[in-house]
């Protein structure tokens, strides 16, 4: 009986202990789980917050640095602007006629400032020179060697004529070889291409070697002479346009004619030539060897020539000699005539500039 009671008691206590153990284990497991959650959650929150705080701080610092940099740049820009304005002011003062100082630039700025203060109380006695601007007295055009007996050559000639027309130049001066071998066909082609130009502009030309009588290279074409109406004997003559005196000579058929040389000397010595810028136009560049002494001694300023079909510009004896581009390289020149100079630019058939020159009255 006693053994039975002990067994029952032992069983009851075992059940209690087992329940207590299970409960303890459950509590322990729950506690560990809660602690794990608490521990794992706690270190995650703080780094994120700290990171955000660092980003915020970094952004604020960047903004402050940007503001500071912006202020520094603005300050530097203001400094550069002040220096630039000071230099511009100094430059303007110098270009207005003030004598530039020999001191360094920083000292110049101070000296100019002091000079301005003194000028307020005392008038300046240094005269200020004002630039003078000349106005052109005439606009003229030159071209040469436009001879044509094909449609292709007519098209090239027409292109140049259109360029001259659009420039507004008047009169127009031609350096010879209006015709090709003296034929009526070539003259008809010339008249067709230049009909508008000759109807709206004054046109003058010299004789070229192709403006000859058919079959006779020593005689000028009567077709040429009848087609135009030029002054004097139509073979050598001169005209005035504004401040330009232009002389036309026959190098093709009368290069050795003393009558032409005598007339030239008389014309160059006239008041019409001596009171103006004087140019001479003839066809053959080789004619210069005969004329150079007369041209140089009588104050000719420039000479226009043709024949070679390739542009050339030389200076000899104080005279500018220009050979016009012609034939397959046809071009033209536009000249502005001023009281004291001539400014001339040479172009190809498409209007591209080849060369330019400016020379004073001799």
TrEMBL record:
The keyword Transferase does not apply. SUPFAM superfamilies: Metallo-dependent phosphatases. Keywords: Membrane, Signal, Transmembrane, Transmembrane helix. Residues 55-85, 125-135 have a biased composition (Polar residues). It holds the Pfam family Metallophos. It comes from the Bacteria. Residues 44-135 are annotated as: Disordered. Residues 86-112 have a biased composition (Low complexity). GO terms for molecular function: acid phosphatase activity. Residues 151-311 form the Calcineurin-like phosphoesterase domain. InterPro entries: Calcineurin-like_PHP (IPR004843), Metallo-depent_PP-like (IPR029052), PAPs-like (IPR039331). The chain crosses the membrane at residues 21-39. The keyword tRNA-binding does not apply. This is Calcineurin-like phosphoesterase. It comes from candidate division WS2 bacterium ADurb.Bin280.
